[in-house]
Amino acid sequence: MRIAVIQVGYGDEESMPERVHRVTALVHDVADEHHPDLVVLPELWGPTGFDYRHWEGLAEALDGPWVRAMTELATDIGVTLHAGSFIERLPEAGPDGHTLANTSVLVTSRGERTAYRKIHRFGFGSGEPKLLEAGSDIVTTQIASGTGESVRIGLSTCYDLRFPELYRQQLDAGAEAYVIPAAWPAARVAHWTLLGRARAVEDQAFVVQCNTAGAHAGTEMGGHSQIVAPTGEVLAEAGVDEEVLVVDIDPALVTSTREGFPVLADRRL
Q1: Domain boundaries in the chain?
Q2: Rounded to two decimals, what is the model's pTM?
Q3: Which terminus of the chain, N or C, has less C-beta within 10 A?
Q4: Which residues are catalytic?
Q5: Residue 53 in 3-state DSSP?
Q6: Fold entry, domain 2-266
Q7: Burial 212-225 (b: 16+ CB within 10 A, else e)
């Protein structure tokens, strides 16, 4: 199964419509050149991960123009697209009284959609917790390759990576790989790579991390997207600029790793 991770780089000078147009063309180019089964984009690459003041004006419904555009893109190129996340305008306010959520969307080549609302909101009481509702659902979905392989992936977003209990629940739901889009800043990028490798080792699963490059709203992004094997081996890692990683993974490695070193069978909690 071939995975393409697109570490999108951008700055404040590029508008969301301009960026959507550019990234759509980039996804087409990657699909034409590499023929991946799965393409992954970062968290909030459209409305930006730290420019909170614009989120209200850029929010859309789950069936709005951005999701429809990503669905059309996935069906056009004939691959499964993890489109990263966007600011979703909820049908009604949630328990915290907010009408927005940080929602990621995965679309198959047939246009079937799976959505995940970010459970852990970054900001220590400000930022995301002040503006967004928290998700509550553990989300996994099966994706297939053109050669008949398939893998069950768990969906999470950025700050979620710091909470291993989420990934244990996805593991119990059958996850063999984790796909994690992010807007993770440069100041803590060492945590980003370390935690991704830790999730791979402790759950003996593939970890696919797609971060953002560039800087926006005064925050420098960390880059260093990576794809990690269930053994903890880093199969590919990006630098700090816009970059594309393409890796072929063997889903059978999850089974052989878990059988060869059956640590998960010794769980007590």
Answers
A1: 2-266
A2: 0.97
A3: C
A4: 43, 118, 158
A5: helix
A6: Nitrilase/N-carbamoyl-D-aminoacid amidohydrolase (3.60.110)
A7: bbbbbeebebbbbb
